[in-house]
Amino acid sequence: MTIFGKRLGEYVEFCKPFLVLVPIAGIVRLAVSLGGAPNSTAKWISVTALVGIGVLYYSVRVHTSGFGGYKQLLVISVLLNLAAQVVIIFGIVLAIVTGTPNIYSAPEYAFGSDGATWSHAAAHLFIGTTAGSLGPWIIGSLALFVTKKVSRADSKIKSLA
Questions:
Q1: What's the CA gap between 78 and 76, in Å, rounded?
Q2: Mean pLDDT of the chain
Q3: How far apart are the C-alpha atoms of 54 and 28, rounded to whole Å?
């Protein structure tokens, strides 16, 4: 499958470290929660923060490596967010099926209501995958814009020397 001129495998290879780290963090967060730790402890393992850090990192790297630009960064943002959403949705469904609450079904992460519901899982499936991809991409696009400006200015200085 080709997306914006690159094969899906190229995107996966390019952002593999964070594609591995994001679900690992999500699984560890779930395990800590299911292990009996309070949510105030488990919340320090933040999948959202890791996705954000990854998108910011790739905002710089996508330009400096010559991998692409804004369109390629969008695909990377979607992939990282999907890696997170798969674990989050699994955690919600696990709470629904087993009746055992976990950090992903906690009311504080479900707008104050019971998070062990199919509507919460569906919200992550539809809203989480879109807004959760576009939000980081917009911020990453700003970082990419700055990276392009700074690297252009740097190359102009080098050409004058």
A1: 5
A2: 92
A3: 18
